[in-house]
Amino acid sequence: MAWKCFQTIDMSSELEKFDPRKAVKFLLRHGHSAKLGLQYRDHGADWCELELPWREDLVGEVDRGILASGPIISMLDMASGLSIWTKHQKFIAVATLDLRVDYQRPARKETAVVGHVECYRLSRSAAFVRGFAHDGDPQDTVATMSGVFMTIAGGTTRV
Predict the structure, then answer these.
(1) Contacts (Cβ under 8 Å, ≥6 apart) of 36
(2) How far, in Å, CA of 69 to CA of 12, rounded?
(3) Which residues on neighbouring strands pair with residue 133, listed in sequence order?
(4) pTM of the model
(5) Contact assessment for residue 90 and residue 156, using Cβ atoms and an 8 Å cutoff
(6) Which CATH number fits the domain that encloses residue 105?
């Protein structure tokens, strides 16, 4: 009879659906993302968009005044994670397995760069993303990217 005092708890109903607008309040205010000054722009059912503001300390070519490639890659990596969690509708631990970034041109001088990433496929243990970075015109990309992320079983937590 003692077993009757235990209730069956459906953990999925207790966890809120992942909301990038709420998550970025923490994720973009700490660590590497905070140091870069990444900002949330928008999201959809399977995509997220972040912005990397132009700052002098992020310039890669001082004489040209353009953002370095490293911060742009970091922005695309973070937008990838956000798009995966948005598509999953929950925060689940992921690790970057492969991230390919192809640059078409340098970003414009003293201009912020926007990263738009879509999670287009989820499998049991992987997530596939694609996206681009631009500096004002999505049709005139600074870079395109694609990536594969491993989902880590048991790595779900509240964010």
Answers:
(1) 52, 58, 71, 74, 75
(2) 39
(3) 115, 143
(4) 0.85
(5) yes
(6) 3.10.129.10
